[in-house]
Specification:
This protein is of the alpha+beta class and 448 residues long. The protein has three domains: 213 residues, FAD/NAD(P)-binding domain (3-Layer(bba) Sandwich), CATH 3.50.50; 90 residues, D-Amino Acid Oxidase, Chain A, domain 2; 76 residues, no CATH class. Helices cover 38% and strands 25% of the residues. It is built from 13 helices and 21 strands. The longest helix is centred in the last third of the chain and has 41 residues.
Amino acid sequence: MNDSDTKTSPANQCDVLVIGGGPGGSTVAALLARRGWSVMQLEKDHHPRFHIGESLLPMNLPVLERLGVLDQVRALGVYKPGADFEADNKRGYNTYAFARALGNSPPHAFQVWRQDFDRMLFEHARTQGVDAREGAEVIAVQQYGPRDSSVEVRSDAAGSYTLRARYVVDASGRDAFLASRKQLRRKNPRHQSAAIFGHFRDATYRGGEDRGNISIYNFAHGWMWMIPLPDGVMSVGAVCRPDYLKSRRTSPHDFFFATLKLHPALWARLEKATLIGDQVRVTGNYSYDASSIGGPGWMLVGDAFAFLDPVFSSGVYLAMSGAEQSAKLIDAALREPASEVALQRRLEKRLRTGMQRFAFFIYRFNSPPMQHIFQHPRNVWQVEQGVISMLAGDLFDSRKVWWRLQFFRLIYFGTVLRNFRRWHSEHRYRLAQAKTEFTGGTTPVDPA
């Protein structure tokens, strides 16, 4: 510690300070406490607090098991056997069942109320020895040296105070506390989106084994989700281009319902449903990253480092998987500081590689070629199974999955070349038609 500060009591000193009480923060805090380090975790709100991002991936399950909370998640969650995407067939959709994945990913996942899931992980961190504090907001961090940081905290219970830590982990989510203050945060120039969403009762579920699926729908301005949650609740939302949300001239409630009605198949599942509490939420600026994952004595974890469009429900898995890797890194850095730089570079490369594999699909998800492939899946060279593995989150270490994703790229670009002119014309028509339906203008001429 810096000799200039003699007022910090032993109770306010720690080896590792974690900013944020979400899945990433609670994971890294618990695992570091298990390794014998003194860990403090600060959450500015009080659990339970609302958070979107309710759909987990199969690859979450091994992390949850190693953390020791899988049984608790099973009790909290809705069984999720796969994801379904709309299609021009008798059922109206194709199911991508996780049991068909190529790699070693579990054959299912869960969908959870995030406020319950996050609270459970936060309380679990306490059982592992973490000094986990709620209602404690980090105001500033000043670093005196690689293993000496001063952290100013404003608490609704204890007033303002200062902590000293050898290592600071930013797991503050979309607040991106350190990345913003260090001017590392970057908007994604290729992909920006915003979301509008709510929760319903009495929505229509898929039948049989598909009842717990997350359902994904395309529409001209983005895509929509339907996620079955506990107690008969359905999470429903639309992720849209920001210019579409900016066109809103009505209340969020009316705009939300007008948006949902743009997709007849989705709306048919909501006609008898009721919006809970008449509450509609809006959030924006989904896609961003930081130019660096860390430096001497500090790390970014989960959404504090980067966030992609949530179309494939990757957020919680990337946060918890990255947090697990970060715990190993920080443990090594505290024991052998000379290893820190190389370990951070290696982890950053790993995480960016995984996000890039997701991003290939995300950037193109609304394109006619991608819609065609998802609506008419073919398992040539086991490519469809490779895509299912990607949807399960198995995209870091399995070479057989990686090769199938490379084959998928070839199929995608071949499909583009064969159909470019027709799809380009149809895509422009659909955009114009959607604008007309929403604004009440003149119907465009069908290119056919």
